[in-house]
Design a protein that fits this description.
Shape: globular
Low-confidence stretches: none
Number of strands: 6
Order of helices and strands: EHEEHHEHEEHH
Helix content: 25-40%
Strand order of the largest sheet: 2-3-1-4
Number of helices: 6
Mean pLDDT: 95
Structural class: alpha+beta
Oligomer: single chain
Length: about 200
């Protein structure tokens, strides 16, 4: 029987933002489109997943406020870009999902669909459990990370902080354990994405 883990007082928020090489419906971005539903499904099954924002006008979870975009979109020719906003129990559960399994397959091929960017690909911060961040919160944190570097306000896996603001080292052993558990639950999804074109 697994040891009891007390309910967390904080959840880890994650926001990411990028730009595609072409319009969302273009052939150049087909690999991303084909994998998008599988990535959402894999997150739903992942250990430590709390929830994610949906997108206004798109079937699925409700949007956490109006979707806005960071200033890096300016002069890109786009009025929107691929982005996500989600909540996790802790750093290890998000890392296990992000760099293994279905999502790792998407990262491997991302250079085909996404422009090279000069801003951080994602930003992390802590919120009180039960709080849902808004899209604007993620945008502000990403810009803060880009401008000022990692801090308890906005950080990365490489320079991470705990909810009290102290520097923290990610438990890589626990990441591996979570990734192995996720792999069992995502086997069907992983087989599906491996069959897709980049």
């Amino acid at each position: 029987m697994a040891p009891h883990r007390p309910a967390p007082s904080h959840h880890l928020a994650m926001y990411n933002f990028g730009l595609h090489v072409d319009e969302y419906e273009s052939p150049a971005v087909q690999g991303f489109r084909l994998r998008e539903a599988a990535n959402f499904a894999a997150a739903q099954k992942a250990k430590g997943f709390v929830g994610r924002s949906g997108y206004a006008g798109v079937e699925g979870p409700e949007s956490w406020g109006e979707q806005v975009f960071p200033r890096f979109i300016a002069a890109s020719g786009f009025d929107s870009g691929p982005s996500s906003l989600s909540l996790w129990h802790d750093l290890e559960s998000l890392m296990a999902f992000s760099y293994n399994g279905v999502h790792a397959d998407a990262l491997k091929h991302a250079r085909h669909w996404n422009r090279k960017q000069s801003w951080p690909p994602l930003v992390l911060w802590w919120v009180d459990a039960g709080t849902r961040p808004k899209w604007a919160d993620g945008v502000a944190r990403l810009e803060h990370l880009h401008d000022k570097g990692p801090s308890p306000v906005a950080f990365t896996f490489k320079a991470a902080f705990d909810p009290s603001g102290g520097a923290v080292v990610i438990d890589r052993g626990r990441v591996r354990q979570l990734a192995e558990a996720n792999a069992r639950d995502q086997a069907d999804l992983l087989a599906h994405v491996h069959s897709l074109k980049p």
